[in-house]
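Thread: quick sanity check before group meeting

JM: Hey all, I'm pulling together slides for Thursday and realized we never actually wrote out the predicted structure for the chain we discussed last week. Dropping the sequence here so it's in one place. If anyone has concerns about the input, flag it before I start.
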Amino acid sequence: MRWTYFIVLQLILVLVVAGLVYKHQDKATIIKIPPKELAQWYKPENKRQVWLHNMFKLRREMQAVQFYADNKDHKSLKKWAVLLNEHYLKIGEMVPNWNKKLDLAILSDIQTSVVNQDYTGVLTAANTLQKNCDSCHIDYQAITALTYRTADFSKVETKPSVPFNSHMQTLSEQVNMIKIASEDGMPNLAISSLTDLKQGMNELGEVCSNCHKKDRKFYPSESMNKTLLSLEQNLKTGTIKEQGMDLGTLAVEACARCHGTHRLTFGAKTLLSKEPSLAELLKH
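JM (edit): ok, ran it. Output follows.
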């Protein structure tokens, strides 16, 4: 009798949990987080993007194996099959936790089919292996790119003791102040705010150049400087409409384009890497 009560209680608990999950399905998304040891194969923990390059090699080797199997070129097929075997096994060597995800039986089938010159068998096994790779990519590719290939601004300072996010907030306030002063007939305030904005943009450019090393002057660009010059002139002698058009152009060139790359991805990275507290989980 006691066992009956126990089983009934367990069923009730399962139903309650299932009901809660269903009720909150529009508020929760399940994301699989890659193992933390993956970080050692990406910058900055590693000097090279080792994991990324191994993935590139595998993609190329899979294509080569399928191509030469299609063309029944045994010599070239054998060469690329050896490389595919090496770099596929490398996944488990670099991240032992993912050894269980490797389809070693299919990998063996490819090698056996290559030796036997069974080209149809090679293609069938390679297609199965590709599906195995795709299933992992669905789970981890996007979140891994966000975690390890997105610039991290959390520890960046534009000047000593001036965090990056504080500097960006100041730039945003200066842009808005130019707009406010322009519309409310305060040209001196608009121009002084523009002067501060120029200085802030130049300071930001020094930070940008740490990554964008190949560009002589990545930020502010020549196009941005032309817009800044036009805006300054229009704040002195132009109409409110001309001032607004210049400011809108500057907002696209100097703010929106960079935000479209960095702000969105860094925001997602920060959100996904955050360790929720027990109180947050219970609240959710």
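AS: nice. The mean pLDDT is 88. Residues 157-272 form one domain.
JM: adding both to the slides.
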